[in-house]
Amino acid sequence: MRSTRSRMSSTKLLPIASLPLAPPHLSLQHNLTSDPLLASPKKLHDVQLAYPSAQRRSRILPGNSHFSHVSPLPIPFPFRIQVPDEEKDKDGQWIEDWLSGREATEPAEKASEEGELKLWKSKKPQEGPLQLLALSKACLRDCFPSLDVGDAFELLGTPKLASNTTTQQDEPAPHAVRDELTSVLGGRNVLANNSDDPEKAYAPWSLRYCGHQFGNWAGQLGDGRAISILETPNTSPNAEGQVWELQLKGAGRTPFSRTADGLAVLRSSIREFLGAEAMHALGIPTSRSLSLVGLPEVPVERERMETAAICSRVAPSFLRIGNFEACNGPNQVFLFGGGGKLEKGWEGMRRLTEWTKRLLGVQSTHDMVREVAKRNMRMGAAWQAYGFMHGVMNTDNISVLGLTIDYGPYAFMDIYDPHHICNHTDQEGRYAYRLQPTMLVFAVRALKEAIAPLVGAEVESGGAVKEGWADGADEETIEAWKEEGMDAMKHVEAEGMKVFEEEHWSLLRKRLGLKEQVSSDPDRIIRPYLDLMDTHSMDFHSTFRALGDFKPSSPDAVLDRLLDSSCSFQARQTWQEWLKIYSERLGQEKGTDAERKEYMRLANPRFVLRQWVLEEVIKRAQEDAEGSRPLLMKVLDMASRPFEPWGAEDELETADEELDEETREERRFCGVGSKQFLGFQCSCSS
């Protein structure tokens, strides 16, 4: 049976293995430099057959290398290999054969039509089943309108919150298109083209990058558990020359995994899957989430033993500031993990810069740095306006496109507290909510430090440098270029902060229903409002939402929603004073109270992906992953449409017990939740 989406779409739908590849001039792996050990898709395939451990061994790559080809292999690590006694004294080929049998090197039988890519499978079945647990309709619509998902949405069931309406489904009948989708997004089957023709060759890859972690230089890091599997053209209007990069998070070891397993647990995968789509719905620049696939029989050891899952995520590119630092990082030695003093990659820097300039649509390297700064400060302004806390703003987690990436111990603000730290690993509070703009400035400065010699060389030559631009340059010349480059970029941070300020106040005006830009708003309206929430420990989101019901003609009415009966007379009086000023300011705006309420409802979410919501969803999924599909899909729906009046919002006077169970649950999921989760902190492993 065809899905509803398939029947209704006027676009020809294609199985995932038949999606078109981006042309070579738009493909990262055709324009940046690969690891010489795995220099081509054909070389990767040969290694998989003969010496597969090579692609999974941690190693420091040469300075000019940007990525390494690597194939998904979501199995436990350390690898559970039981070598027969008679093989133990031999040269280790038995281990290589064991791994090779699990690599995707055999052509897979598939019902879909042939495309530019082939579908590959392993010789031996991998551990246990794959469970398609969730799929984002919004991401499909926006990024992959021609992707056929078969009967996936029938499998996932009707989205529902109420637990007693969630029933265990019978094992679905095989469906070629849906099974192909799940096998690829679950890391079992692999898309590749091992052609000797470099224009046609294609294989998955992981990025090499370095970074500052909690302010300290950490050497080479890289995609330790992320593998990009596909670049396909972006067919959206006005997106000519752009691609969507599809990436699996938790698909097994890469050369950058160091001592880790390259896997992700169900808990963290749910958080990223829901978090990215929630951010997009709020209008905050972010990577997207396509799917969530569970691997219930693949054990993963974290603080305790858990099961694996893979979140597939989407972006025009996952390049980050750490990619530039990998070409020219500080010379300090990092003692743990083999960071050390890395080889400089001057030609790698030039190629990476030329590629990034194309992505950003700028001409000069100086303009590229300026654009990276502005985009990230614009993103940071949205974080602050919507109470989002990233938790791990290391330079390797900061996108050059100004996207929110790498969702770990993130959180949305509950009770407003500008000092809140959402990551309990961040003991010094480096990435506290109030410091996030400062940490973005730190990341921009790290980019400037890395790229300054190139900018200086361009200033000296009067334009873009050519291949081999730094050949033969001594340290004195490099340092002179760096000084010239840093001087040329001296205003970048100030320009970025100006963008932050303008965007931040603009978004907060919108949340307060103010369309006109009045210069006194920050000091007279917005800061006092935030101070009131801080002083009286008020919820960041529901307070904004409730304020939409304010009417200057009856100012006390909204106070009954904002303040409970235990609030002091002084608190009520302070709020009355602010509302008087706010009422006067509203008098400068055009439109009716009803129009302002609608405007504010489109800026202030009714549903927020709070920590308690995530914890409840995770708990139910861990208890019964397949049975939690309707819950996951309903929370995804609410996160994707956060401004809707969920839970009969317009009938708040109606008692909970008078609502049907699903509406009652919607109302509960829109609430602040248990006090035990207020200010809840996650760890980096989240």
From TrEMBL:
Cofactors (names): Mg(2+)
GO molecular-function terms, A-Z: AMPylase activity; ATP binding; metal ion binding
Coiled coil start-end: none
Keyword list, A-Z: ATP-binding, Magnesium, Metal-binding, Nucleotide-binding, Nucleotidyltransferase, Transferase
Cellular component GO terms held in the UniProt record: mitochondrion
Pfam families xref list: SelO
Xref: InterPro entries: SelO
Family recorded in the similarity comment: Belongs to the SELO family.
Name recorded for this polypeptide: Selenoprotein O
Source organism (scientific name): Calocera viscosa (strain TUFC12733)
